[in-house]
Automatic annotation (TrEMBL):
<dbReference type="InterPro" id="IPR001196">
    <property type="entry name" value="Ribosomal_uL15_CS"/>
</dbReference>
<keyword id="KW-0689">Ribosomal protein</keyword>
<dbReference type="GO" id="GO:0003735">
    <property type="term" value="F:structural constituent of ribosome"/>
</dbReference>
<protein>
    <recommendedName>
        <fullName>Large ribosomal subunit protein uL15</fullName>
    </recommendedName>
</protein>
<feature type="compositionally biased region" description="Polar residues">
    <location>
        <begin position="1"/>
        <end position="10"/>
    </location>
</feature>
<dbReference type="InterPro" id="IPR021131">
    <property type="entry name" value="Ribosomal_uL15/eL18"/>
</dbReference>
<feature type="domain" description="Large ribosomal subunit protein uL15/eL18">
    <location>
        <begin position="75"/>
        <end position="143"/>
    </location>
</feature>
<comment type="subunit">
    <text>Part of the 50S ribosomal subunit.</text>
</comment>
<dbReference type="InterPro" id="IPR005749">
    <property type="entry name" value="Ribosomal_uL15_bac-type"/>
</dbReference>
<dbReference type="GO" id="GO:0006412">
    <property type="term" value="P:translation"/>
</dbReference>
<keyword id="KW-0699">rRNA-binding</keyword>
<feature type="compositionally biased region" description="Low complexity">
    <location>
        <begin position="33"/>
        <end position="43"/>
    </location>
</feature>
<dbReference type="GO" id="GO:0022625">
    <property type="term" value="C:cytosolic large ribosomal subunit"/>
</dbReference>
<comment type="function">
    <text>Binds to the 23S rRNA.</text>
</comment>
<comment type="similarity">
    <text>Belongs to the universal ribosomal protein uL15 family.</text>
</comment>
<feature type="compositionally biased region" description="Basic residues">
    <location>
        <begin position="11"/>
        <end position="20"/>
    </location>
</feature>
<keyword id="KW-0694">RNA-binding</keyword>
Amino acid sequence: MLSLNNLQKSKSIKPSKRLGRGNASGSGNYSTRGMKGQRSRSGGKSGLMSRSIKGYLLRIPKNRGFRSLQSKMIPVNVGELDKNFKEGTVINARQMLKVGLIKNISKGVKILSQGKLSKKFTVEADAFSVTAKAKIEKAGGQTVVVGQFSASEEKKNKSE
């Protein structure tokens, strides 16, 4: 709020130099540009490029990192399955989509072990973490690897 006790004097604005207005102005004759060369002429500063590549490299935007071409599977935790499904149901990607745990099926679903599991399920997914698989089987359920990613998962399990 403006009042008499907090009024301040306005900061003075220094007027810009008027170049090329005769010798008496202090910046006549060559208008502070020097005598000859590219920079003394009109359009000279913008057209002049530095000789080294350093100036060119500094102007290029550096976008760090990269985006992987390999699509990542959508993670779903065991605890979320326990909350959203009844005991004894067969859970697959389409049912997870209906419930709203995942947004699309195309990337594949990986079941992770976070959360507690107290119900017995048969879970069909593209991949399982080792601890999630153990939790589901400990609760009395089954894990079934299905989908387009199942072949690559089987190769990994055989090599281990």
